[in-house]
Prior knowledge:
By secondary structure, the protein is α/β, with parallel strands linked by helices. It has helices at 136-148, 177-190, 210-217, 230-233, 236-256, 285-298, 315-320, 325-344, 355-359, 365-372, 405-415, 444-449, 460-463, 468-483, 489-492, and strands spanning 4-7, 15-18, 28-29, 44-46, 55-58, 61-66, 75-76, 81-82, 109-114, 120-121, 125-130, 160-164, 195-202, 225-229, 261-264, 269-274, 302-305, 381-385, 395-399, 419-424, 437-441, 456-457. It starts with a strand and ends in a 17-residue tail after the last helix.
Amino acid sequence: xxxxxxxxxxxxxxxxxxxxxxxxxxxxxxxxxxxxxxxxxxxxxxxxxxxxxxxxxxxxxxxxxxxxxxxxxxxxxxxxxxxxxxxxxxxxxxxxxxxxxxxxxxxxxxxxxxxxxxxxxxxxxxxxxxxxxxxxxxxxxxxxxxxxxxxxxxxxxxxxxxxxxxxxxxxxxxxxxxxxxxxxxxxxxxxxxxxxxxxxxxxxxxxxxxxxxxxxxxxxxxxxxxxxxxxxxxxxxxxxxxxxxxxxxxxxxxxxxxxxxxxxxxxxxxxxxxxxxxxxxxxxxxxxxxxxxxxxxxxxxxxxxxxxxxxxxxxxxxxxxxxxxxxxxxxxxxxxxxxxxxxxxxxxxxxxxxxxxxxxxxxxxxxxxxxxxxxxxxxxxxxxxxxxxxxxxxxxxxxxxxxxxxxxxxxxxxxxxxxxxxxxxxxxxxxxxxxxxxxxxxxxxxxxxxxxxxxxxxxxxxxxxxxxxxxxxxxxxxxxxxxxxxxxxxxxxxxxxxxxxxxxxxxxx
Length: 509
């Protein structure tokens, strides 16, 4: 009797995904083809003969080209599959439709923080944010002193104090997109609703002047943002003492006044991310998260899909769902920008997947991208944003970013995400402050091995014990619990102090 399952994801596929190790000659559930060799779990096996130069099909889409003749039952991977051309039939806005929204009375609520500017937070941190790397150490020392002196014991409603530090902010042009990107990223954190209040610390002579940011973005509500410089205060020690005094007597007492209240899930903005992907990502966790996103959008909520190099090869499926032709064309402009950008730096957009992705069964970026976009569900793509550009309005949005997870999420949080859902097959250990990150495992084996880091196991779908719908309901329920204050696994372990990684495309001069 067959003991191992095969996943054929579309009737036109000429490969299946191994739902466990396929041993030569063994019977496979859901597949009449007998393995001709060992095929590891999550990897691909041919179900019929594939000629050299013929397209390999998975998800009903081209994922590459056979480099030699592939017989039925053979392992299909790097040794016989390479990158190939993919569809550019963009069919702009062809499948766009307005979501059917649930009435307000039927929408779930969570316990969140309503801020003075109307935005809603899921956490109540205080941020110490450096405008430039030259003030990063001072920002960190301020936080260290607060913790050493146990100051937060007097402010029980404050979730913590976070140093947001980075390695840029000077020796760059102040009139190009790279600089504007940095300012959007820093400002998006300084004004993030998960911060009850924030203090920005600069050196004083840097290119990224704090007063110019305030002038550009607009003065925020009274008490929500403070700023100072090391040079103005007279050095490191005096700056630390001045900031500690202001924190203890003004900033922390104000942040401590915040109280959770019932708020509609329409105020949730969820960053979507996948890292350490494997052959199960596009089968279990990503499509289940996509279903949860559809449910959130029906309730008036928002989600942000990102990682432009990791939608490469699947962009034609997103353009079909674009709200307008202009939205779809903006995405294609980003794809062309990335092709040019990596070529100028002697790179290739197809150098993805990473070694860990390949060990988990993914071969080409086309294959990886087709699985990755399923995190966005089936809803209409409402807008395409620059890195760290604020989200406006409900629904699904796409934000330009690299595929490097901490850098991509930094931009999504700056755009306004107040919650993160992060799928992983190999086992990414990631957390964020000020934004809680829900980790969703693609397979049960990894979930069991790394249960202290994983919040949800979507591997139950591959195991046959749950449906995508059931896992999606669990994901949505966990979103609401976490937004209301329940700690994620990464929060419990203290992640988030080193994950602020802004994307920089500026020339350092």
